[in-house]
Write a structure and sequence with these properties.
alpha+beta; UbiD C-terminal domain-like; 2 domains; 5-stranded mixed β-sheet; 14 helices; binds flavin mononucleotide
Length: about 550
């Protein structure tokens, strides 16, 4: 059978789409992958560049600290430097990403097995994997965090393993550090709610067998995106990727292990993971924003590296957030949380789930935007539901109203300051999983803080001019040629329920220049039986 047709873009099609959209920067100057490459792209995330202006970087002239040159170019940020880049990979508008995930998970399309795939145009095995400049040592694997990381690491890889009991295949994005030209250290999260590959490893270990494994680099974007997505145990990621593109993804049998890999991948690294011996792995700077220190982790003996003739090596920039790693998770996780609360739990009035990204990395702080006026019991169902969907997500969960922008810390503090009463609107929960580094304080668990910072009743309007006055003033501002405005919500007043027609009419008279009429009217309401600061609504009724 000849090479199969594909009904979806592969990774190189995707890079071309990014270029056509002006979202790819090609760097032809020599760049050292060990010291320069990731720090250069890092500036895009630490240099005050808005997300909409972030780009993917293609390095065509890759060198290293041993003054070697690499034939294979490296691309960083091509999967998710921004939501726009991710949406191009998904083949849908940003607004449709959530629905696309829900549809793909609900209606997966199993992969199609083909006999040959571009990912095996070049096959390297045996002695050709051993020694300086061979095997993994011939791949342009960058060092993510020079100065802290102990090795070059694969970061944009989907790790394929098979459940030896059920036969289902899993794909998870796990880091893997180079140890030798044919040896990789693999880190699968072992705690509850961690990596599915780890559960497979435990099964092979119980059988006294080694675990076959394949690292897939640069699969079609839909395949790359299912790696970091948290799917239920036993759900096959390749079928969900098929659901994303609406067609089966082509897969071929790996050359040296009994696993299926995406036929159009750029590079595949095959091998066996030992289930008896573990080896120290890391330091490696992690997505929770600290350096992960040395732990015992798995070791994979590489049996084959296969790749396209013109392969491109993808790398994800992670570590302190925001990063490509947090964008790739944000756009995938937020819609799942929304679907969980709104459709699975049936909580009324949930509008949006927003996971806080800068520095905290999504999992720790979650905001739920709720419609005004939903019963408080629904707000609390949303809070409990959001903190229990995933073991590691939801250390602080805060419910807010629609007018509070969860990405604006000032707005969140505003809601906490005026719409929540700590005595009434806060709960702490115990027995939560630990995520990220932590100073040991005994019990080895974390806890959760839930806050209802929604309006519990009516409040007076926001103290800014009504919208029409601010809009008119903006036109005036622009006519005067003053500096460009970036309106920040709230930028106009609006009612929060506690307002009356009388006050509206008085304000209207004032802007018409008729404040004297207001003065005449209030003069008729003078009284001597109240103290200063008494609300007109609280003053005793006058005898008629
Ligand atoms: C760039 C990146 C690196 C990651 N590294 C790891 C890792 O080293 N180990 C791990 O268990 N999860 C890692 N994750 C998170 C997993 O990919 C994620 O939890 C995924 O849902 C796991 O899939 P699984 O449940 O099928 O194992 C990483 C995610 C990203 C985006």
């Amino acid at each position: 059978m000849s090479k199969a047709q594909k009904a979806y873009p592969d990774f190189q099609d995707h890079i071309r789409s990014l270029e056509a959209a002006g979202l790819l920067i090609t760097v032809d100057a020599p760049i050292n992958k060990d010291t320069e490459m990731h720090p250069l792209v890092r500036w895009q995330f630490r240099g005050g560049i808005p997300e909409a202006e972030r780009k993917a970087f293609l390095f065509t002239n890759v060198t290293d600290s041993r003054r070697r040159k690499y034939e294979i170019p490296v691309v960083i940020g091509a999967l998710a430097a921004s939501g726009t880049i991710y949406s191009i990979g998904m083949g849908v508008d940003i607004e449709a990403i959530g629905k696309t995930w829900s549809r793909a998970i609900a209606s997966p399309i199993p992969p199609r097995t083909v006999q040959r795939g571009p990912c095996q145009e070049v096959v390297i095995t045996g002695k050709d994997l051993e020694g300086d400049g061979k095997g993994l040592d011939a791949l342009p694997v960058p060092i993510s965090t020079p100065g802290y990381d102990c090795a070059p690491y694969l970061t944009a890889a989907n790790c394929v393993t098979r459940d030896p009991e059920t036969g289902t295949q899993n794909m998870g994005t796990y880091r893997a550090g180079l140890k030798a030209s044919n040896r990789l250290a693999v880190r699968m999260v072992a705690r509850a709610g961690g990596a599915e590959g780890y559960l497979h490893w435990e099964k092979y270990k119980a059988r006294g067998e080694r675990m076959p494994c394949a690292f897939v680099l640069g699969g079609p974007p839909a395949v790359a995106y299912v790696g970091p997505q948290k799917l239920r145990i036993g759900v096959e990621e390749m079928a969900v990727a098929g659901g994303i593109v609406g067609a089966p993804i082509n897969q071929v049998k790996a050359k040296t292990v009994d696993l299926m890999v995406p036929a159009e991948a750029e590079i595949v690294i095959e091998g066996w993971i030992d289930t008896e011996y573990l080896e120290p792995e890391a330091p490696f700077a992690e997505s929770h924003g600290h350096v992960a220190l040395e732990d015992y982790n798995m070791i994979m003996e590489v049996t084959a590296i296969t790749h396209r003739r013109n392969a491109v090596f993808p790398s994800i920039i992670s570590q302190v957030t925001p990063s490509e790693s947090s964008v790739i998770k944000r756009v995938a996780y937020e819609p799942l949380f929304l679907t969980h609360l709104r459709d699975h739990l049936g909580v009324k009035g949930v509008i949006r789930v927003s996971m806080h990204e800068p520095l905290t990395n999504l999992r720790r702080v979650i905001f739920i935007q709720m419609e005004r006026g939903v019963p408080q019991t629904e707000v609390w169902r949303a809070l409990y539901g959001a903190c229990s969907l995933q073991a590691l997500c939801g250390k602080y969960v805060i419910a807010i109203n629609e007018d509070i922008d969860p990405t604006n810390g000032d707005a969140v503090w505003w809601a906490l300051a005026y719409r929540a009463d700590p005595k009434l609107d806060i709960q702490t929960l115990q027995h939560r999983s630990v995520y990220g580094p932590r100073v040991e304080r005994g019990e080895g668990e974390d806890s959760t803080l839930l806050i209802d910072a929604t309006l519990k009743g009516n409040l007076p309007p926001i103290a800014l001019p009504k919208r029409e006055y601010m809009e008119h003033a903006k036109e005036l501002w622009e006519r005067l040629g003053l500096p460009r405005l970036e309106p920040e919500a709230p930028w106009h007043g609006y009612s929060l329920g506690d307002w009356s027609e009388d006050w509206d009419e008085a304000a209207l008279r004032a802007v018409k220049g008729e404040y004297l009429e207001n003065g005449r009217r209030t003069a008729q309401r003078c009284r001597s039986d109240v103290r200063p600061n008494t609300s007109i609504r609280k003053a005793p009724r006058k005898p008629s």
